[in-house]
């Protein structure tokens, strides 16, 4: 993975635009989701950016919140943290900074609250502040109602910044890789969410596992996924905050394009909109929208025309998969089981162009 440098394409990072206007009120309750795993390098930031971009592409009003002082999400979107006037650090530490001051518009339908390295100091600076675990909720909860989806990119630790994410969130997605040690990590994480529920956010639920960098051919990965499915099927009958959790489909396959895109300050849809990684995140977004009972906007004509040669390469292969009849000219394309089939038929048809 090359070092993150948003200017690597030769262009300076785009100057951030303030969100032009507060987004229009949405009819549905926003899904406020913390992307959480105390382990680093598991795909939290990649999933926050690209799932968020896929949801925005499907017509959802999305806000991404970068809570990691490493600011990888900020770089991934091609924004220089130095150019940002108000960031998460200001929001947490300055009583005069409001959420609307810190929101900028990064892409159509996609707003963001950015991070910077100063954020690392927030924890110690806030040590004596009484409501320090809920500042983000106190400041952002009202504005959150203006979005359809809010995704919070958490740092790889369970400190104050993560607690702020968990106090605002209604649910948790756990991005993870399917290997043995990851299972232990998930157990620990579930315990933590249980504790947070008892203290600052009784409504918090773990609702999804996002399988990242998935190697579906390996026996180990298959076994781990089976174990996870069985674990959550068992939990469904228990009174625990993860009783509705599911291993989300499709899994996100390992795809080098996903690792390259942040170096150019691009989402996967800016960079390679029809590579396997883009298709996996697009299908995951659509599967979620179907599960949430949300409408899915058709892809715009520019996106259709951007269908590249790479679409002819083998693309989706999901855990629960079957051939898509709509993709007769691209037999490699498969879609997940109904009712998502119809939602993803458009993707399959486009990949066959
Ligand atoms: N599906 C994938 N295929 C290939 N590389 C990936 C994939 N998902 C993430 N990566 C890469 O793995 C590394 C860690 O991912 P990242 O999202 O930054 O993890 P985290 O935020 O959990 O630390 C990054 O270099 C990222 O580009
Ligand atoms: Mg990260």
Question: Would you write up a description of this structure?
Answer:
- With 353 residues, the chain is of the alpha/beta class.
- The chain has a single domain, classed as Rossmann fold (3-Layer(aba) Sandwich), CATH 3.40.50.
- The chain is 38% helix and 13% strand.
- The protein contains 14 helices and eleven strands.
- The strands form two sheets. A nine-stranded mixed sheet has the order 1-4-5-3-6-2-7-8-9, with helices on both faces.
- Helix 6 (135-144) packs parallel to helix 7.
- The longest helix has 20 residues, at 180-199.
- The protein is globular.
- Residues 1-15, 20-26 and 308-340 have low confidence and may be disordered.
- Magnesium ion is lined by residues 44-45, 68, 72.
Please give the structural blueprint.
Layout: E1 17-18, E2 31-35, H1 44-57, E3 62-66, H2 72-76, H3 88-93, H4 99-102, E4 103-107, E5 110-113, H5 119-125, H6 135-144, E6 149-153, H7 160-168, E7 171-176, H8 180-199, E8 205-211, H9 219-235, E9 246-247, H10 256-260, H11 268-271, H12 276-292, H13 301-305, E10 321-323, E11 334-336, H14 340-351
Helix pairs in contact: 1-12, 6-7, 12-14
The structure holds adenosine-5'-diphosphate and magnesium ion.
- Rounded to an integer in angstroms, the radius of gyration calculated over CA atoms is 19 Å
Helix/strand/pairing class, anyone? alpha/beta
CATH topology: Rossmann fold
How large is the share of residues in beta strands?
5-15%
Q: Please name the fourth-level CATH homologous superfamily.
A: P-loop containing nucleotide triphosphate hydrolases
- How would you name the oligomeric state of the polypeptide chains in this document? single chain
Order of helices and strands: EEHEHHHEEHHEHEHEHEHHHHEEH
For the record, what CATH class applies?
Alpha Beta
Mean pLDDT: 83
Largest sheet: 9 strands, mixed
Percent helix, as a range, is: 25-40%
Count of discrete alpha- or pi-helical segments spanning 4 or more residues = 14
The CATH level-2 architecture is identified as 3-Layer(aba) Sandwich
Shape: globular
Overall tally of structural domains: 1
The ligands found in this model are: adenosine-5'-diphosphate, magnesium ion
Low-confidence stretches: 1-15, 20-26, 308-340
Amino-to-carboxy terminus distance: 31 Å
Q: Trace the largest sheet across and list its strands.
A: 1-4-5-3-6-2-7-8-9
């Amino acid at each position: 993975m090359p070092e993150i440098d948003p200017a690597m394409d030769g262009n300076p990072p785009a100057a951030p635009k303030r969100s032009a206007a507060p987004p229009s009120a949405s009819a549905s309750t926003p899904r406020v989701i913390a992307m959480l795993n105390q382990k680093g390098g598991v795909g939290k930031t990649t999933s926050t950016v690209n799932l968020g971009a896929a949801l925005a592409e499907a017509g959802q009003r999305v806000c991404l919140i970068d809570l990691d002082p490493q600011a990888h999400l900020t770089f991934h979107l091609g924004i220089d943290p130095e150019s940002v006037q108000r960031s998460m650090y200001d929001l947490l530490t300055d009583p005069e900074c409001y959420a609307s001051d810190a929101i900028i518009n990064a892409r159509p339908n996609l707003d963001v609250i950015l991070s910077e390295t100063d954020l690392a100091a927030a924890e110690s600076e806030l040590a004596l502040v009484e409501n320090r675990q809920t500042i983000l909720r106190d400041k952002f909860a009202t504005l959150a109602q203006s979005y359809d989806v809010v995704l919070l990119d958490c740092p790889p630790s369970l400190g104050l910044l993560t607690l702020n994410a968990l106090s605002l969130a209604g649910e948790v997605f756990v991005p993870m890789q399917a290997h043995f040690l990851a299972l232990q990590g998930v157990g620990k994480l579930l315990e933590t969410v249980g504790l947070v529920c008892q203290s600052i956010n009784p409504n918090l639920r773990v609702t999804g596992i996002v399988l990242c960098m998935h190697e579906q051919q390996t026996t180990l990965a298959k076994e781990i996924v089976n174990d996870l499915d069985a674990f959550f099927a068992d939990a469904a009958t228990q009174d625990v905050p993860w009783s509705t959790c599911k291993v989300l489909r499709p899994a996100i396959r390992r795809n080098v394009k996903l690792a390259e895109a942040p170096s150019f300050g691009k989402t996967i849809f800016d960079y390679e909109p029809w590579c396997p990684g883009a298709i996996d995140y697009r299908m995951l977004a659509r599967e979620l929208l179907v599960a949430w009972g949300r409408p899915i906007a058709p892809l715009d004509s520019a996106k259709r025309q951007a269908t590249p040669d790479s679409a002819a390469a083998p693309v989706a292969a999901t855990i629960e998969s079957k051939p898509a009849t709509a993709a007769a000219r691209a037999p490699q394309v498969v879609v997940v089981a109904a009712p998502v089939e119809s939602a993803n038929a458009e993707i399959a048809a486009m990949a066959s162009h």
